C-alpha cells in the first residue's frame, strides 16, 4: 500500500482528494505536492510540503513530510489528522475497490482481513466523490461484510450508477444476508449498473463449510441467498478458497455447483493469503499448492467438461499444473502484489500473479520457470 506520514496543520477530520504535482486552478478537490509556495490556493483541498518550506496556505490543511512521495498523478489519497496519508484509489490500477466495513457476521478461519473497526461507508461515499470512473474497469466492493448495512450498500451502488451509467461493479459478500428475500429484492431494484456478486462456497458438505466459516447454519443461509439472487437474475461468481480442510474435496464441490447452482456465471479457485486469521490459524489451515496440484487440475477439468467458466486466482504459475496455466489469472491487487528474489529470472513473470506482499510466509517450492 502506498503511504507516507508527517506532521499536520489545520486538519481536524480525514480528507480525500486527487493527488497532483501541478497546481491547476481548474482541478477541484486536488491535494498538491509543492516544493515552493503556491501562487494560488483556490480549489485545492490540501498541500504536501517539505519541512523547510514556510509560507501562507490560507488556513488550508497541510501535510509536512520529507518522505519520498510514492503517489502517481490523479491517485485518490486520504490524509488523517494524525499525519497518515494513504492512497485509497490508484489511477493506473485495474484492481481498485471500496472497503466499506470491518464488521462481518462470519469468522472464517482463513480470512486475511483484520477486524479493527466498524462501518466505513461514509468515507467510501467521500472517496467516490473524488473518483473519475472508467467503464473499461470494474469497481470492487468488499469488507468485512458489505450487506450488514444493506441500505447503505444500495445507496452506494445507486450513487455509482448515477455517476457512471452501466459501470461494472463486483461485490464480495458471504451471501448469507440474501437468505432474506427482502434484501435480494432491494438489490434487484437497482438500475443502470453492471452488477455481479462474489460469494464463497468452501465445501459441498454443510458441516465442513460451517466449520471453515465459523458459524453454524452458514451453508444453509448461503445456498438460500444464492437461490434468492438467482431469482432476480443477478450475476454470481462462486469463490472457493483452497485450504487444508477442503483441498481433497475440490472435485466434489465442482460437481455440487454443476448440479445445484447451474445459474452461476463464474467460478474462482483461490490460493491462500497468509494474513489476519490465516496467519493466526496457520498450522491448522496451511497447505502448499504443490500438495493440491492434481486436485485443482481435476476440479478445473470438471468445470470445463460442465461448460462452466472457471479460473484460478492468487497462484504462482510455478506451483500450478501446466495443463491449467491458461486459467491462472494475474489477480492480486497491485498494492499488495510482489515477487520473490527467485522470481527475477522467471520467463513467465509478466503473466504470473506473483505472491501476496501481505503474507507472512510463502511456499518453499516457488522457482523460476525456464
Characteristic key phrases:
23% helix; 9 helices; eight-stranded mixed beta sheet; alpha/beta
Folded structure, characterized:
It is a single chain. The chain is an alpha/beta fold and 370 residues long. 23% of the residues lie in helices and 21% in strands. It contains nine helices and 18 strands. The protein has an eight-stranded mixed sheet with strand order 1-8-7-3-4-5-6-2, covered by helices on one side. Strands 9-10-11-12-13-14-15-16 form an eight-stranded parallel sheet. Strand 7 and strand 8 form a beta hairpin. Helix 1 packs parallel to helix 2 and helix 6 packs parallel to helix 9 (293-305). The chain is globular. The model has no long low-confidence stretch (mean pLDDT 95).
Short structural summary:
The chain has 370 residues and is α/β, with parallel strands linked by helices. It has 9 helices and 18 strands.
Amino acid at each position: 500500500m502506498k503511504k507516507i506520514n508527517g506532521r499536520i496543520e489545520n486538519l481536524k477530520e480525514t480528507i480525500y482528494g486527487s493527488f497532483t504535482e501541478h497546481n491547476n486552478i481548474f482541478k477541484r478537490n486536488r491535494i498538491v505536492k509543492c516544493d515552493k509556495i503556491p501562487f494560488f490556493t483556490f480549489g485545492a483541498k490540501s498541500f504536501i510540503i517539505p519541512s523547510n518550506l514556510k509560507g501562507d496556505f490560507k488556513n488550508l490543511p497541510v501535510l509536512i513530510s520529507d518522505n519520498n512521495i510514492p503517489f502517481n498523478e490523479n491517485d485518490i489519497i486520504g490524509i488523517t489528522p494524525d499525519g497518515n496519508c494513504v492512497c485509497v484509489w490508484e489511477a493506473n490500477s485495474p484492481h481498485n475497490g471500496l472497503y466499506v466495513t470491518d464488521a462481518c457476521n462470519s469468522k472464517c478461519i482463513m480470512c486475511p482481513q483484520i477486524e479493527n473497526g466498524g462501518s466505513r461507508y461514509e468515507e467510501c461515499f467521500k472517496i467516490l466523490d473524488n473518483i473519475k470512473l472508467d467503464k473499461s474497469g470494474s469497481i470492487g466492493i468488499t469488507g468485512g461484510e458489505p450487506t450488514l448495512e444493506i441500505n447503505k450498500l444500495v445507496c452506494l451502488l445507486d450513487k455509482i450508477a448515477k455517476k457512471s451509467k452501466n459501470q461494472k461493479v463486483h461485490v464480495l459478500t458471504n451471501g448469507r444476508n440474501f437468505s432474506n428475500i427482502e434484501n435480494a429484492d432491494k438489490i434487484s431494484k437497482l438500475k443502470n449498473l453492471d452488477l455481479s456478486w462474489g460469494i464463497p462456497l468452501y465445501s459441498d458438505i454443510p458441516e465442513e463449510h460451517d466449520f471453515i466459516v465459523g458459524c453454524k447454519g452458514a451453508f444453509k443461509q448461503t445456498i438460500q441467498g444464492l437461490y434468492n439472487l438467482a431469482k432476480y437474475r443477478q450475476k454470481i461468481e462462486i469463490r472457493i478458497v483452497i485450504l487444508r480442510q477442503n483441498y481433497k474435496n475440490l472435485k466434489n464441490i465442482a460437481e455440487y455447483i454443476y448440479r445445484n447452482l447451474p445459474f452461476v456465471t463464474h467460478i474462482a479457485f483461490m490460493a491462500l493469503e497468509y494474513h489476519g486469521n490465516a496467519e493466526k490459524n496457520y498450522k491448522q489451515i496451511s497447505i502448499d499448492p504443490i500438495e493440491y496440484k492434481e486436485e485443482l487440475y481435476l476440479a478445473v477439468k470438471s468445470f470445463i467438461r460442465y461448460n462452466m467458466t472457471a479460473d484460478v486466482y492468487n497462484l504462482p504459475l510455478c506451483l500450478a499444473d501446466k495443463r491449467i496455466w491458461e486459467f491462472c489469472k494475474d489477480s492480486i491487487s497491485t498494492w499488495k502484489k510482489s515477487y520473490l528474489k527467485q522470481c527475477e529470472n522467471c520467463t513467465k513473470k509478466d503473466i504470473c500473479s506473483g505472491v501476496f506482499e501481505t503474507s507472512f510466509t510463502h511456499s518453499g517450492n516457488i522457482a523460476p520457470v525456464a
